[in-house]
């Protein structure tokens, strides 16, 4: 091989190596940039969820500590009114009943915003209580099964509770289902969460087209904060199933 040919091939090899290094550097930079964007997105979603939960906590506290006692005091004052006139007695009875209804509704709203059981006794107890309450109100037969140690940190428990709240709410409101099965279990270093109903099902693209996919977006956002995988299967007339794999650590 002549010297000129050797120099040429050497230059080509060097150029190929330099080009390869540039391409590798570019790919690594793109991956780092993508990871940084994903991290920033997760931080943004996490901050929004934290803000939402703090606002819920504040409103629940105001309802429980301020509005509730105030309504109870008004009820007591009304019941102390004395009158022998039947019309006045009816008015007092009418007012008392409505105050009782308002107190009941206030407690329900406060509970939905921040269940005390979730804070004090953890996720499983809070879900059992939620399912029990909803069984008394709605015709939907909700079956909740759990196995293994599914204890998580408080932030994760709140997010899982909200996800199941969203699923149950959507099933009651939209699915026209008679039964909803929820299963949650610990498997190695993951918590596996599954729900399945026998309702109408839905077409995802149609839901998004009609701007009815906010529930799914909420589930996706909370799943991302938990670093969880999230999948669902749904077809019109065949019900809906949701699947989550949530890392424990």
Word description of this protein:
The protein is of the alpha+beta class and 249 residues long. It folds into two domains: 1-114, no CATH class; 122-247, Histidine kinase-like ATPase, C-terminal domain (Heat Shock Protein 90, 2-Layer Sandwich), CATH 3.30.565. Helix content is 67%, strand content 15%. A hairpin with a 5-residue loop joins strand 4 and strand 5. The radius of gyration is 28 Å and the shape is elongated. The N and C termini lie far apart (62 Å).
- Main sheet record: 5 strands, mixed
CATH superfamily annotation of the largest domain: Histidine kinase-like ATPase, C-terminal domain
At CATH level 3, the topology of the largest domain is Heat Shock Protein 90
> In the CATH hierarchy, what is the class of the largest domain?
Alpha Beta
How many runs of DSSP E, i.e. beta strands?
5
Shape assignment: elongated
Q: What is the annotated CATH architecture of the largest domain?
A: 2-Layer Sandwich
Number of helices: 7
| Derived structural class | alpha+beta
User: What is the distance, rounded to the nearest whole angstrom, between the alpha carbons of the first and last residues?
Assistant: 62 Å
Multimeric organization: single chain
Unreliable spans are none
- Order of helical and strand elements: HHHHEHEEHHEE
Domains, number: 2
Strand order of the largest sheet: 1-2-3-5-4
- Estimate the strand proportion: 15-25%
Helical fraction equals: 55-70%
Mean pLDDT, to the nearest integer, reads 81
Question: Radius of gyration from the CA trace?
Answer: 28 Å
